[in-house]
Structures are given as structure tokens and as C-alpha cells.
């Protein structure tokens, strides 16, 4: 699983291949949210204290040639990272996810807890990363596919990425 977690720990899932070196030169995807601010607290509505589900996200700067988009939400903790949401095979023409929803046609993979869907963050002092990946192909796995398999597939297909990071849960 460590190799598959490269996508979450590095933020872009890039290895040492020539193709990976080329990916590093791409402009990053811009990620924003009407409810989240980079380096600010994650509103408790989007945590295990709330009932809203995932926060709304928007992105721009997806490069030409993108075949699908994926989102990974994790906490990158030094005491044991946790993946709270994986959504993949998002249509590349889509540029946002509404609050508490999944884009039409997108697929949710398993989280660290083993279930598909948004697993609200609970570790109040952790930083949470909302990372959007542009992919050169669809992930093409079923709903609830294993976290390891899903993250590896995202890492292998990443051509650009961007991130919004919250500082802790309010």
C-alpha cells in the first residue's frame, strides 16, 4: 500500500520516470471553494461533527488532453495518514463538485475505513488536503474499489494537480 499512497503523500503521485519529470513542468491546477480557505480551519459542518458531507470544490487550469479528473481528500498525518474521500472518473469538462454530492458519472473509491463515499474528518488538529488530479485516462474501477488499487491508478495517470489545504477542524 505504501507505493499506492505516493499519490496522496506527494500530492501528485509522480515517480522517477521521464514522463513523471515532464509532468513536474506543468502548471498546477487551481483549487478553491466558496466554503474553505487555504490554510484556514475546516468548518465543522464538513467534519464528523456535521451532517453536510463533502464541501463544495472548484478547479481550473486542467490541461488539454485530460481524460478524467479525480479528487482525493486526506490528512497526511505523521501519526498515520488517513484518506477521507476518493472520487474518480469525473468528466474533464466538469470544474466543480457541489456540497454533499458527487458529479454525475463519477465513481467513489474506498477510504481508509474501507467504505466508499465521503468519510468526514474527525482528527481536530490535523491538516486536511483537498487535491484535484487531472488524468490522462479514466481510472475505470468499480465503486468501492480498494484504496490501494485506486490510488495507484490515479498516480499512474496524473498529468497535473492542485490542492487546497485546511489547517485543522474548527
Automatic annotation (TrEMBL):
What SUPFAM superfamilies does the annotation carry? Answer: PEBP-like (SSF49777)
- Species of the source: Streptosporangium carneum
**Record-stated family:** Belongs to the UPF0098 family.
The cross-references to InterPro entries, in alphabetical order and at most eight, read: PEBP, PEBP-like_sf, YbhB_YbcL/LppC-like
* Name of the molecule in the record: YbhB/YbcL family Raf kinase inhibitor-like protein
